[in-house]
């Protein structure tokens, strides 16, 4: 039986074991998938041991995604660009790092929610690891414009510089704005901040909602996040990050096993369990 795991701290509430066991069952794949909390300082040692003992692959969640990139023998392009890895793959004695978060978001938006990114006017709120992880895959879908806004504008500037070459290559107008300089129209607003965790929301000008953007929060929970509640109050269509979670997992599963599971069936089960 091939062994897989998710590493995180904390990890007890991770839905990854449920998702990957469901995928395995669906696809008739014989595998084990466990959750491992190595403590705040123990990731590298625990991951090395897991792979030395024959582990075939792992997911990595907060706060170890940067460490996971550093640990790998080889970083694949999506992980390099994201500066972080959420997926580790043991292949021919080497450990590869990849990042499936961005494609997970793109698939959730374009396929599940029917929100096109090509030609879109996108506002990405936040400039931490979550924002950086999705920026490359969003740019490759060729939105018309991508604006970054963050509480600490300098972090958004740094991110914009890091992706300037890709934006030029894909023909996307990428820039940074402060909250009060944000002007409609945007067709898509994405919250990549952790503000929802504190029950807070970024101070977006309400007129952004007048143009009826689709509003997405990469966080999810039993109840809508403050960001989505605010958007819904203004009549916007909204979605939380549960679909992204399932889609990034499906992409990891594909990298490990070479087959694509039916993400929608597992998404429906998770959604029902969350309510
Ligand atoms: P992550 O890896 O989840 O992105 P992070 O790197 O700590 O975590 O980044 C958190 C993001 O949420 C940042 O964009 C942060 O803004 P700052 O760069 O100004 O810190 C944003 N954030 C967190 N709490 C927020 C709040 N209450 N209001 C607005 N933005 C917030």
The secondary-structure element order is: EHEHEHEHEEHEHEHHEEEHEHH
Instruction: Report mean pLDDT, rounded to a whole number.
Output: 97
CATH architecture of the largest domain: 3-Layer(aba) Sandwich
Strand percentage, roughly? Answer: 15-25%
Rg, Å, rounded: 18 Å
Output the CATH class name of the largest domain. Alpha Beta
What is the assigned CATH homologous superfamily of the largest domain? NAD(P)-binding Rossmann-like Domain
How many DSSP H or I helices? 11
Question: Which regions have little confidence, pLDDT < 50, spanning 5+ residues?
Answer: none
> Given the helix and strand composition, which structural class is it?
alpha/beta
What is the number of strand segments?
Answer: 12
| CATH-defined topology of the largest domain | Rossmann fold
Shape: globular
Give the strand order, joined by hyphens, for the main sheet.
2-1-3-5-6-4
Through-space gap between termini: 33 Å
Query: Which sheet architecture does the biggest sheet show?
Result: 6 strands, mixed
Ligand kinds: 2'-monophosphoadenosine-5'-diphosphate
């Amino acid at each position: 039986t091939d062994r897989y795991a998710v590493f995180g701290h904390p990890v007890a509430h991770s839905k990854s074991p449920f998702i990957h066991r469901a995928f395995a069952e669906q696809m008739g794949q014989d595998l084990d998938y466990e959750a491992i909390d190595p403590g705040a300082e123990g990731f590298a040692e625990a991951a090395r041991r897991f792979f030395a003992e024959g582990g075939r692959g792992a997911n990595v969640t907060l706060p170890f995604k940067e460490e996971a990139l550093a640990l790998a023998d080889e970083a694949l392009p999506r992980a390099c660009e994201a500066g972080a890895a959420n997926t580790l793959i043991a292949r021919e004695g080497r450990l590869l790092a990849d990042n499936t978060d961005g494609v997970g978001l793109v698939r959730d938006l374009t396929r599940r929610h029917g929100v096109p990114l090509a030609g879109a006017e996108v506002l990405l709120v936040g400039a931490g690891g979550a924002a950086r992880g999705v920026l490359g895959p969003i740019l490759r879908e060729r939105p018309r414009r991508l604006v970054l806004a963050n509480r600490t504008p300098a972090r958004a500037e740094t991110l914009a510089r890091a992706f300037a070459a890709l934006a030029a290559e894909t023909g996307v107008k990428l820039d940074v704005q402060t909250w009060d300089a944000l002007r409609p129209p945007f067709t898509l607003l994405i919250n990549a901040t952790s503000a929802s965790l504190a029950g807070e929301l970024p101070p977006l000008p309400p007129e952004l909602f007048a143009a009826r953007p689709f509003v997405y929060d990469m966080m999810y929970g039993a109840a809508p996040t403050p960001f989505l509640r605010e958007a819904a109050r203004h009549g916007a269509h909204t979605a939380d990050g549960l679909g992204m979670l399932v889609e990034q997992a499906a992409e990891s599963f594909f990298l490990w096993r070479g087959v694509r599971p039916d993400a929608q069936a597992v998404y429906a089960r998770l959604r029902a369990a969350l309510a």
